[in-house]
Design brief:
Blueprint lengths: L7 H16 L6 E4 L23 E4 L5 H11 L3 E2 L2 E2 L1 E4 L2 E4 L1 E4 L1 H9 L9 H6 L2 H8 L2 E5 L4 H7 L5 H18 L2 H7 L3 H22 L10 H6 L5 H12 L3 H22 L10 E3 L2 E5 L2 H10 L4 H4 L7 H4 L3 H4 L2 H18 L1
Parallel strand pairs: 2-7
Antiparallel strand pairs: 1-2, 1-8, 3-4, 5-6, 9-10
Helix pairs in contact: 7-9, 7-13, 8-9, 9-12, 11-12
């Protein structure tokens, strides 16, 4: 019996080794804990165990082997493992935590495409960051089919030109609104200024993760992901000060400190030539900005692939929209992204 809370990844690793692997030893398979669940991203706590949580393993098998595998698993699972029930509620359904799937179908259901073949710009840009994180994080316990580790390696991060493009779109998002908190406050709209400040904090957090080759998770875990970045403590302090600010001047000063830090990171990762990292006046108005558009332009100019360079600054599906009903349905996310990409050649 394990005492205290056991992180789900640790629990599932032991579950596969001690229970599941012997049951399917004669069946070719790969086994992992990937996909949805806070434990996949290692964000689970004791609170997570109150729903959709328990000893879980995802088994990938060859075509036609699912029924045999499910029967072998059903016949041998214990009712309790390390003090945790092996049958528990999962997204409204009570069942055991071993899922059996064919890899191609499962990947398509999570991403909207099968990455075992060539991965197109549409594939990359239509896959939500959370979904990409769910496939590339977690852990592979056994790759007997020899495909899962290869797929995860292929999806680990964007190709360089698409990385430049997504970063450019993120800087552009900042550049489009960075003067607004001051302008709102100037006309007495402190609430609007604070609201826009909060929006910009979110965009900075996502940019910081993208710069460090991390897929930004969905809103609940965004701050936790930022806190795990090496050297992010001072950036977090600046963003916290921006959110706590009672005046637009204090808000602007805190955001400016954050912008300058990310501009310095931009120079360190050296995807473009060096850029000036200091904030500057917004035209002749009394607002300080980093001018995110100039960093976006530098990134776009560094892109070698003409297809990627020609894309409008709309970005990935996460940068186009934040509707949960789109981002959690791969077909919808792909349709939205395809619609935007289809319009771009005519607009150019």
């Amino acid at each position: 019996m394990m005492s205290g809370f056991v992180p789900g990844l640790e629990l599932s690793r032991a579950y596969y080794a001690d229970v599941v692997a012997p049951l399917v030893a004669d069946i070719p398979h790969s086994a992992a804990l990937i996909g949805p669940g806070s434990e996949v991203l290692a964000f689970d706590t004791q609170r997570s165990a109150d729903h959709d949580w328990g000893p879980r393993v995802l088994l990938f098998v060859p075509p036609g082997a699912a029924a045999e595998t499910e029967a072998a698993v059903e016949a041998g699972l214990p009712s309790i493992f390390c003090g945790y029930p092996t049958v528990f509620a999962q997204h409204g359904q009570v069942r055991h935590g071993v899922r059996v799937a064919e890899l191609g179908g499962w990947l398509t259901s999570r991403l909207g495409f099968d990455p075992r073949g060539p991965i197109t710009p549409l594939d990359w840009l239509s896959a939500p960051w959370q979904a990409l994180a769910e496939v590339t994080c977690g852990e592979v316990f056994h790759d007997g089919l020899g495909e899962l580790n290869r797929v995860r390696a292929a999806l680990r991060w964007y190709p360089d030109d698409l990385w430049r493009y997504v970063l450019a779109c993120q800087w552009q998002r900042i550049g489009q609104e960075e003067s607004f908190p001051g302008r709102c406050a100037e006309v007495g709209d402190e609430l609007g200024s604070a609201t826009l400040g909060g929006r910009l904090v979110r965009e900075v957090m996502r940019l910081a993760l993208l710069q460090r080759r991390r897929y930004p998770p969905y809103a609940k875990w965004l701050g936790s992901a930022l806190a795990r970045l090496p050297g992010a403590a001072e950036l977090g302090e600046a963003l916290g000060a921006a959110l706590a600010a009672r005046t637009w001047r204090d808000r602007e000063a805190a955001l400016s400190a954050a912008y300058e830090r990310l501009a310095a990171v931009h120079n360190r990762i050296a995807l473009t030539g060096p850029v000036e990292t200091s904030v500057r006046p917004f035209h002749d108005r009394p607002f300080q900005v980093i001018d995110g558009g100039r960093l976006a332009e530098a990134l776009l100019e560094s892109i070698g692939d003409p297809q990627v360079r020609a894309l409008a600054l709309c970005g990935s599906v996460d940068q186009m929209c934040d509707s949960v009903e789109i981002l959690t349905h791969p077909a919808r996310a792909r349709a939205v992204t395809a619609a935007v990409l289809t319009l771009q050649p005519a607009a150019a």
